[in-house]
């Protein structure tokens, strides 16, 4: 099943049909560790809608913070080492370490939804999107569902010094989520494919693919580290890293369209301001 958030309500998709969730907030589901069963019960008693209000989709988030894991794919490890000015050893060491890299990414008010506008920093000269699987995690550190994340990054700023990571990653319009939350009984499979296309002047300017088989870290282990001595009363989202990195000569431009798709979830489309 999939959970959508529109301008007026929440909607469940099940078997190609859409069901309303009248009077329920997004946050009310984040404390439900049997979310699939709860949604299945709603579907069984509600009358289907005529369709989904696609034009009014919002980012599927409530009061959750968004966090991120870095250097979880070998390709990302190489890219971070290449861009770093003398700090490449940090990325090699964190890739091999038991403890993962985890960092704050966004408050919910700054998260951009489907067809929304993401931004590149005015003081950056080398900016890229990072397509990632995002986890919806309950306050009890249980993975409830999955969505698509767009982790906008300023590679030149991060490359100058690893301590500049927050400035490279956290700014207005730097995080996209959507279009929905995939909620299923079983964990997402390792063969799940992730693809990103960047369209410029109505032509595909860059395309790349990877799969969850390429991620080094166990997803539940990433969650466990994030929740060590850290509570999330509304749950949280965790971006799990990227295995798709455009070539060094590439940088985003205004009006580029970023299309990120993940098997079973759908496609998140954002335009660059």
Total tally of structural domains: 2
First and last CA, distance: 32 Å
Q: Unreliable runs, pLDDT <50, ≥5 residues?
A: none
Write down the Rg. 18 Å
Number of helices: 7
β-sheet strand percentage: 25-35%
Average pLDDT rating = 93
SSE series: EEEHHEEHHEEEEEEEHHEEEHEEE
The total strand number stands at 18
CATH architecture of the largest domain: Alpha-Beta Complex
For the record, what CATH class of the largest domain applies? Alpha Beta
Q: Per the principal axes of the C-alpha atoms, what is the gross shape? A: globular
CATH fold name of the largest domain:
Fumarylacetoacetate hydrolase, domain 2
Largest sheet: 11 strands, mixed
Derived from helix and strand composition plus strand pairing, the structural class reads alpha+beta
Top keywords for this entry?
273 residues, alpha+beta, Fumarylacetoacetate hydrolase, domain 2, 2 domains, 11-stranded mixed sheet, 5-stranded mixed sheet, 18 strands, 35% strand, globular
Describe the structure.
It is a single chain. The radius of gyration is 18 Å and the shape is globular. The longest helix has 11 residues, at 35-45. The chain is α+β, with helices and mostly antiparallel strands and 273 residues long. It has seven helices and 18 strands. Strands 1, 2, 3, 4, 5, 6, 7, 10, 11, 13 and 16 form an eleven-stranded mixed beta sheet that branches. The protein has two domains: 2-57, no CATH class; 60-272, Fumarylacetoacetate hydrolase, domain 2 (Alpha-Beta Complex), CATH 3.90.850.
